[in-house]
Predict the structure.
Amino acid sequence: MSRRPPQVPFVNLSLQHQPIQTEIEQVIREIIQRGDFILGQALTEFETSFAAASGVKYGVGVACGTDAIALGLQACGIQPGDEVIIPANTFIATVIGVLQAKAVPILVDCDPETALIDLTAAETAITSKTKAIIPVHLYGQMVSPAQVLDLANRRDLIIFEDAAQAHLAEREGYRAGSFGKAAAFSFYPSKNLGCFGDGGMLITNDAELAEKMRTLRNYGAPSKYLHTEIGTNSRLDNLQAAVLNVKLPYLEKWNRDRNEAAQHYNTLLEPLKQKGIVPIANRSSSGHIYHLYVIRVTEKSPLAKPSKRIDRNTLQEKLARDGIQTGIHYPVPCHLQPAYQNLGNRGDFPHTETLCEQILSLPMYPGLSNTQIEQVVRAIGRSLNC
Ligand SMILES: *Cc1c(COP(=O)(O)O)cnc(C)c1O
């Protein structure tokens, strides 16, 4: 049975690309003409401008965000067996990055209101083997730089930021990726800044560290056929960098659009709070770049079953029938995934486990209209009057 196309899609990338398509085609044509495909001019340009936009000195383009985490940790001197603290509530790529660096991911629970890492739980998880902490700036909201810096300074930890969902997000005067030793970004197409395939970047203020990252991504070779590190092949394609060069100047505007759309959702959803619909809390005001706009369907919702099971899935199905596309980020926590059961048992991270059952990501993209937002919220209201 085929469904009607959604009236409100979850994302709309063509809306973003149509106005700049000619410009993008032009830069791609130039690269084809020059035959400048690997470690080329567009990449250098993008590394410089993305790092500058993020408030740091150096950028190193890599093949994807997952590689950025793995190579970044390796460059920071993380050794096999070192423990790295990460939030249980994250995309699986954070776990994979740590494992690829041969380190041991130590999961900790999240704050149920912001869905971000609980730093008190993080402090409790520190052992003599703990070397680093990865704050994940989830959904486009940064973890408090002041609080992470305080913890890391007191307990002598390396801060490595997972900023894959937080390009140019801000909090307490810091941009995402600028307060840690280094940070990882992803340019997967649907991220706030996305390329036309896979792509990623490491940023840092440390010149020596940046050099090591450049070496690691390019066969461990600081110069051709000299291999000083056990590296890999993980470069950001020059074609992708060229696309990103065209898109970067629009990013602040796109992020602002998302933030404004979120404010509209917040206002309209306010009366539904008493019915148990609670948006994930924003503690960074206009610095939140809303990669995702996420609500919780709590026990107070009329959809919650008598058994206290929260029926987010029913809401999602009802919205789909109304032509509204939604997502769940993420439906199963990392430690309950078949491949990663050694990371924890059911019940170990209760806030994360509850969130996974409660959360629903509403349509969010630059260009989402107020009319569409009103349509989404009306449909949620209707679904609750069951
Ligand atoms: C997307 C994402 C990654 C991984 O990026 P890829 O480019 O897909 O490898 C890592 N961490 C988080 C939080 C992400 O959302």
